[in-house]
Amino acid sequence: MANDKGRWSGEVTAHSNALDLEKDVFRLDDPKKIAASLKRSARSSTRRKADPFRSAMSMLTFYINRAGKNLSSKRKKKLEAAKDELRAQFRRGHSPRQARE
After folding, report:
1. CA–CA separation, 73 vs 56, rounded Å?
2. Which site among 38, 43, 60, 71 is 20 to 30 Å from 51 CA-CA?
3. In whole angstroms, what is the distance from residue 87 CA to residue 94 CA?
4. Residue 68 has pLDDT above 90, yes or no
5. DSSP conformational letter for 18
6. Closest CA to 85 of 44, 45, 28, 46
7. pLDDT band with cut points at 50, 70 and 90 for residue 89
8. Which residue, 59, 12, 69, 71, is CA-closest to 35?
9. 48: pLDDT confidence band, cut at 50, 70 and 90?
């Protein structure tokens, strides 16, 4: 069953029915580029069920949660920074993390 779950989450990330992600988007080093790619994918999707911001943020959060312990702290920081950048690009205000810095 664990193998099925692993395959399932990988399938969702690779072949989401809501967003067509650009290849290796989550491997990019620049949080701004990750956010911009997710924004493009969410805006161009005709299959998403939520607004573009929610769809993009959901896919990013899903990836972070599914990768879990396999993410290095450096990689996780970049992906978390991509969340903040996604909020900025969609003009959704500041996150609590930005307010503290």
Report:
1. 22
2. 71
3. 7
4. no
5. S
6. 28
7. very high
8. 59
9. confident
How far is residue 80 from each of residues 9, 25, 63, 70, 73, measured CA to CA in Å? 19, 14, 11, 15, 10
- List the one residue out of 44, 53, 48, 50 whose CA is nearest residue 89: 53
Q: So where are the chain's domains?
A: 2-100
Q: In terms of DSSP H, where are the helices of 1-101?
A: 2-14, 31-44, 52-67, 73-89, 96-100
Q: Is 97 helix (H, G, I), strand (E, B) or coil?
A: helix
| Placement of tokens 């911001």 in the chain | 53
Q: What is the pLDDT of residue 95?
A: 53
Q: What is the pLDDT of residue 54?
A: 93
Residues of 12-25 as b/e, b for ≥16 C-beta within 10 angstroms?
ebeebebbebeeeb
Q: Tokens representing 86?
A: 């996604």
